[in-house]
Amino acid sequence: MADGKPPGPPHGIPLAHKGMFYQAGLPCTCGSAIRRNFVPDLTATVIARL
Q1: Distance between CA 16 and CA 32 in Å, rounded?
Q2: What is the pTM of this model?
Q3: Burial 2-14 (b: 16+ CB within 10 A, else e)
């Protein structure tokens, strides 16, 4: 939208996803106490494409 192009079809639809999909810089525990401090450097492809 910043470059003047119209938004895609899913524009405005709320998005929620499980905590097992990595997002760079955000904690991702995958429901495990062992991974409680894990912060990924990369974002999962499925999240980036959405």
Answers
A1: 20
A2: 0.58
A3: eeeeeeeeeeeee
Burial of 43 (0-12, 13-18, 19+ CB in 10 A): middle
- Torsion angle, alpha carbons of 28, 31, 34, 40, to 10: -10
The string of pLDDT tens digits covering residues 6-50 is 888 878 888 777 777 889 999 888 888 898 889 999 999 988 887
Environment class of 22 (CB within 10 Å of its CB; exposed 0-12, middle 13-18, buried 19+): buried
For 35, the 3-state DSSP assignment is: helix
**For the chain, where are the E strands, in sequence order?**
none
